[in-house]
Amino acid sequence: MDDREAAVAKKLENLLSETAEAAVELSRLDGTVKGVPHYSVIELHAHELGKQLSRQIQQRQMNEVAADQLRQHPCPSCGTNCEVTVSPREVGSIDGAVELQEIEGYCRKCRRSFFPESRSVGI
């Protein structure tokens, strides 16, 4: 592990620790956890926070993938290079709905819209 990777790993560890502290404090303040709760209440609250984090990571990763895509793709019908745009699209994940950026092209020659292969962006 190089210095940069170690620094980012340490930053993640610190942020997760801070997040856990904030989540515990908030659960007490908002009444989610009162007195001595059953462990299942604590576990469910932690799992919901984990799903929220998962959705944010998925969205961030896929938005970076979309940002790195070429701004032109060949039309699947005629092969003409066409400009593409990026627009939001809701996708269902195992942790809930995630809004991703979808790449869409339009071929003026064929007068049709197309979506570059989903496999090229990992969907």
Give the tags.
123 residues; alpha+beta; 4-stranded antiparallel beta sheet; elongated
Structural commentary:
By secondary structure, this protein is an alpha+beta fold. It has one domain (3-121). Helices cover 46% and strands 25% of the residues. The radius of gyration is 21 Å and the shape is elongated. The relative contact order is 0.11. The model has no long low-confidence stretch (mean pLDDT 90).
Oligomeric status: single chain
Q: Whole-Å distance between the termini?
A: 30 Å
Number of helices: 2
Rg over CA atoms, rounded to whole Å, is 21 Å
What percent of residues adopt helix (DSSP H or I)? 40-55%
Please state the overall shape, judged from the principal axes of the Cα atoms: elongated
What percent strand? 25-35%
**Class from helix and strand fractions:** alpha+beta
Main β-sheet, spatial strand arrangement: 1-2-3-4
Number of domains: 1
Overall average pLDDT: 90
H/E element sequence: HHEEEE
Number of strands: 4
Offer a quick outline of the entry.
The chain has 123 residues and is of the alpha+beta class. It has two helices and four strands; from the N terminus they run ααββββ.
SSE diagram, text form:
Elements: H1 3-29, H2 39-68, E1 72-74, E2 81-93, E3 96-107, E4 112-114
Antiparallel strand pairs: 1-2, 2-3, 3-4
